[in-house]
Structures are given as structure tokens and as C-alpha cells.
């Protein structure tokens, strides 16, 4: 098993520090990933991240048509919320929780909110891909 190097998880706090235009929080919390690596090992973390990425990819494909059916939207948002919490994808979890709550109560979810969720989901998938690519280094 490859030893976890702490510098691997030393992500900047915001995108601006990476040369990005905005000051938003990065998709994955490094302390959560470190804890997972300690708990399940580096190889286990890589496998779990791969499954998380696959799950997010499937949900992303279903998210747009689901918007018309509040029960299905609530279910998909719940899947996103639960998985995101495991990997420290806090912003994605919070957005999904809000959409899940509104969909369950029958409140309409504006298209702009779904687009924001999709954008954060894509950012999170990119962060997971980067984490997988960095695995074992």
C-alpha cells in the first residue's frame, strides 16, 4: 500500500488561489479525504472515489429530465447529498439538501438552482478526477 503524503491533500482554500477568477470554496475538503485515507487506506480511498465519481456521473445524466418530477428530483438530490457528505463535498451537499427539501415539500425548484447544482456537481467530479489521477503519488 502506498503511503499517504500529506502534501497531496494540501489544496488551496479557494479557486482564486489557483489563478481562478472567483473566490469560491474548492469542491472537496482535504481533512475529510485525509481521514478517509487513514480509515480505509489509500487504495480504499481510491476505490471509493472512483465509485463516487461514477455515481455523480449517473446522477448528472439524469438530473435535467428529473426536474419535471419532484419525487425523482428529491431522490436524486438525496443520493447527491448523502454521497457528497462522505467525501467532504460540502457545497454540493448543501445545494442538494436544499433541493431535496424543496422537492419533497412540492415547492418548485427554479431552473437556475438546478443549473447551479449541476455546475457544482461538474466541479466536484473534476476534483474527484484530479484526486484519482494523483492517487499513489
Please tell me about this protein's structure.
The N and C termini lie close together (11 Å). 27% of the residues are buried. Helix 1 (30-66) runs antiparallel to helix 2 and helix 3 (90-104) packs antiparallel against helix 4 (111-134). 68% of the residues lie in helices and 0% in strands. The chain is mainly alpha-helical. GO terms for molecular function: protein kinase activity. This is HPt domain-containing protein. InterPro entries: HPT_dom_sf, Sig_transdc_His_kin_Hpt_dom.
Brief sketch in words of this structure:
This protein has one domain: Four Helix Bundle (Hemerythrin (Met), subunit A), CATH 1.20.120. 68% of the residues lie in helices and 0% in strands. The protein has helices spanning 30-66, 70-86, 90-104, 111-134.
SSE blueprint and pairings:
Elements: H1 30-66, H2 70-86, H3 90-104, H4 111-134
Modified residues (Phosphohistidine): 78
GO molecular function, one term: protein kinase activity
Keywords: Phosphoprotein, Two-component regulatory system
Features:
single chain, mainly alpha, 4 helices, disordered N terminus
What proportion of the residues form beta strands (DSSP E)? under 5%
Q: According to CATH, what is the class?
A: Mainly Alpha
Derived structural class: mainly alpha
Instruction: Label the CATH architecture.
Output: Up-down Bundle
Average pLDDT for all residues: 81
**What helical percentage do the residues reach?**
55-70%
**Number of helical regions:** 4
Radius of gyration: 16 Å
Query: What's the number of structural domains?
Result: 1
CATH fold-level name: Four Helix Bundle (Hemerythrin (Met), subunit A)
Q: Which stretches are poorly predicted, pLDDT < 50 over at least 5 residues? A: 1-23
Cα-to-Cα separation, first versus last residue: 11 Å
DSSP, total strands: 0
Please trace the helix and strand order, writing H or E for each element. Answer: HHHH
Biggest β-sheet description: none
> How would you classify the quaternary structure?
single chain
What sort of overall outline do the alpha carbons produce when their principal axes are compared? Answer: elongated
